[in-house]
Specification:
Number of domains: 1
Number of strands: 0
Mean pLDDT: 83
Radius of gyration: 22 Å
């Protein structure tokens, strides 16, 4: 099949999925599977190949992040039950106020916690974002959701030790210290500017709570407030946050160890996100058992496991669409279409990464592929490799949408409709991509 037809069928599958969900109100699970089946059959994978691509895509996502999602949700549920999230929310509101919270989250998450992979970071922070959102004067869920997206995605591709930033820096031969410093120079202003611009968009009436948010489900964090007799037994904020801090410190240490080339031994083992989150869950469970009761701790775990179900299913099916797209060879086709030309190398790097991200749905893969395409020609162009790396990371932020498992996980964690997720996740990453490109181009003028 020709390259043009593969690209055409991919566009039809993605647009058709969006239309089914938004216009025809089809459940995302059905729409995603329909789009995946169409794409596989239309691009010549055949019946067996299409099924294998769908199942392998689902399985690959579950293998890489399935247990991380489970442990992250359970940790968040237990922290809610012991009052940690409520107390932390109150502390943040006292220090910064509700209206500044989106700025605090977007900048802190992107600059301080890039070692924590996006899926894990989102799972850990979503309960806190949901708790703060009602305190914001207008459209709090949208504002906090956008902040969480920005914090998770910017650190991934622009700031070392984010996985995408590390890979692109390695491909282009950029010193990691340089990538860290100038990644922060781009990511922090991008977070602040994009958050400000997004709030201006919200102020003009874009958000509709009735259609963009789902009816809130019963959540575990309500339990301590509904049982005031237990409140005296709840631990202090510092003690209740220890399991979360333990997980974060271990994950960060593991990321630093990986950068240093340490891939075996206790530090690499305990710094693995799976082990770190599991230890955090154990600590939070024991704390809940002691502070509340064995029954309440068990009920909280049960509620958390029920909450995991829908998140895992929709995330996995999003991975199925990505798996089919990968089997079509679209990534190689798009890479072949790009070569150095009259465009600025920085704009070209941004375009390559943006197109790849829209097509294949992986932020880190888009950044890495764009870097790989341009790496062979860096010697023949008069542009610093650092700037190309930053431009590729900037383009890879563009438009997280329905072919990304992150999109669907965010939807479930923030309790949004698909329309609302497009207005937050997709819109804010598009804005951040454009803002960060402008900053990279400004930086290039001073280079």
């Amino acid at each position: 099949m020709s390259d043009v037809l593969i690209m055409l069928h991919t566009a039809i599958a993605i647009l058709g999925t969006v239309v089914l969900i938004l216009a025809l109100r089809v459940e995302p699970l059905i729409a995603l599977l329909t789009g995946s089946i169409y794409l596989g059959l239309a691009t010549g994978l055949g019946f067996t190949g299409t099924i294998e691509a769908i199942t392998s895509g689902f399985g690959d996502i579950m293998t890489s992040i399935g247990m991380l999602i489970v442990f992250g949700v359970l940790l968040g549920s237990l922290l809610s039950a012991t009052g940690a999230l409520r107390k932390l929310t109150e502390s943040l509101l006292r220090v910064f106020g509700a209206e500044r919270s989106p700025y605090v989250f977007s900048t802190t998450m992107s600059s301080v916690f890039p070692a924590i992979y996006t899926d894990v970071l989102l799972v850990l922070t979503a309960p806190l974002g949901r708790t703060i959102a009602p305190r914001i004067r207008r459209d709090g869920t949208a504002a906090m959701g956008a902040a969480l997206i920005l914090g998770s995605e910017l650190g991934l591709v622009l700031v070392v030790p984010g996985a995408g930033a590390l890979a692109v820096a390695g491909l282009l031969g950029v010193p990691l210290g340089q990538m860290l410093l100038f990644g922060l120079v781009i990511s922090v202003p991008t977070a602040l500017i994009t958050t400000f611009l997004y709030k201006q968009v919200l102020a003009r009436g874009m958000w509709n709570q009735d259609t963009d948010e789902l009816a809130p489900a019963e959540t575990p964090e309500q339990e301590p407030e509904e049982a005031p007799a237990q409140s005296g037994k709840l631990p202090s904020l510092g003690i209740s946050l220890l399991p979360l801090l333990l997980a974060i410190v271990l994950i960060a240490a593991g990321g630093i160890a990986k950068v240093a080339g340490v891939s075996t031994g206790p530090l690499a083992f305990f710094g693995d996100p799976l082990i770190a989150l599991f230890l955090g869950v154990i600590g939070a469970y024991l704390l809940a058992w002691r502070s509340l009761s064995r029954q309440q701790a068990g009920d909280t775990l049960g509620n958390g496991l029920r909450e995991c179900g829908s998140i895992l299913i929709i995330t996995g099916v999003g991975g199925s669409l990505g798996g089919v797209i990968s089997k079509t060879g679209l990534e190689d086709i798009l890479a072949g279409y790009f070569s150095t030309n009259a465009l600025s190398p920085l704009i070209l790097a941004w375009i390559i990464a943006a197109v790849l991200h829209v097509a294949i749905g992986s932020t880190s893969v888009a950044a890495i592929t764009a870097g790989g395409i341009l790496a062979p020609v860096l010697g023949s162009i008069d542009v610093a490799p650092l700037l190309v790396a930053l431009a590729a990371g900037s383009g890879a932020l563009f438009a997280v949408h329905v072919n990304s498992n992150f999109f669907w996980m965010f939807q479930r964690l923030m309790n949004l409709s698909t329309r609302g997720t497009l207005k937050t996740c997709t819109l804010v990453t598009t804005m951040a991509s454009v803002v960060s490109l402008a900053l990279v181009l400004l930086l290039s003028l001073a280079w």
